Amino acid sequence: MNAVIALCHFCEAHGPSAIFCTQTLRDTKLEDLYLNGPQNASTEHVHKQCPACNSVGLTNGLYSKDNESGATFLSTQISPLPDVATLVKQAAVRSLSCEITQSKDGGFVFFGDTSRGHVLSHTFQVSDVQARGFYQLFSIIILMKDKYFLLNTKPFLAEHLRRISLETQNSAKRIKEEEELKGSPRQRRLSGSQPLVQTPRSLVELTGEENIFAILHTHFSWLLLAGSRFLTEHVTFGNLPWLPPQSTSHPPQQRLTYNITTLPMIQKYETLDDPEEFYSLIHIKQLLKKTEFISLCYCALTGVKIIVRGDARRTFYFMMCLKKLLPDQMHTLIRVDAQHQHSISADYKIISISNEIAVPIASASVFRVDFLPETDDGNDILVKWPGTVPNKLPDLLVKLLKAVNETRFTELVLNRHTKVLVEEWKNKVICLNHAKSTNGQNKLKRVLGVQPQDQALINYWSAHLH
To answer: Sorting pLDDT into bands at 50, 70 and 90, what band is 247?
Structure first.
């Protein structure tokens, strides 16, 4: 699960802060983090050397590795990634000050935004006979960028966060009972045998468990691993919607409509170890002009029929890139390498076809892409569409264009980001489909942030998503 889990504490001397942070590392080497770790620690944290504000120290850490996924789970006092450390610090302050419930058993609060991340906060009290009010305030926060993933997994996460807090509270309660047997804390304070101002105690002292942070590391690491498996989004390419299942190395009889040029490419596509590496929208952007690329994406997202005509060896990759613009349930609207003219008049919305087959002329409802014989000057693609793109583009298209223009994205990162954006809007459309009245749908649109310029996309997707 691409998230950060942190234990936060409200110190009576220094205020709220995150004292223990666990995150998932996949492509970052631990050696690099440890070399730079102490430099990332702010002077504010360096001066907070009281026991309550410290856990494993600024230069130490705990880590575990899952052999199956290859993910490494690293726990440190401060996140070794400066950007993450800043977000965790902000979330910690809010979770222990304004975003809090009054429940002694521990409540849950959801807060955040797109810039500072979305947070699920669980605040709870830990008994301490020496503290003001005889308890110290802690919280466990889960910070991630994906708002809908966090909300969808909230029941699962809340259940296990409550178990972790309850285990910690029970350990502290036993220590409190043992200390109370030695005399009433109130009597010791009034008699002067106990100083009025006490040094805040660490979680190790409160629970009597020397390995409390190792235990928390185990809990947080498992939660990150289990959370990623509890709710996942798969891109399935085993049996493409336009092809029957393949059980042997030879094409079955139904597949004979696909020419000998296309079949090897389809078979390669089906057997890829990581299909997400199979080109991205950048491939289309490099072939078309900027305005043509925007128009093509708009037509694909809003249901304007797209006909890609030309040699199968060139149109196939083009079609695989267009396929990424639609949810899995709508991939049946795509027809690759159609061999008959009746396919054009069918319900297919995105079709590739050979040069030998006649196709309708371009119109407002038909977007034409013709792959011409290759030339030296590179002008071998002809785009025809007399329609116009609206001044305000759908929100999904705006985000896709921004992602495609992001120079720091590799093709793999872009493909996964595209998948996330498409899944987000698929879920929005499904939610709107479940609205029982127009008034209810309008309220839901405001909640989901749906604007009038998104209506064309919603109308198209609603007919195919249930």
So the answer is: very low
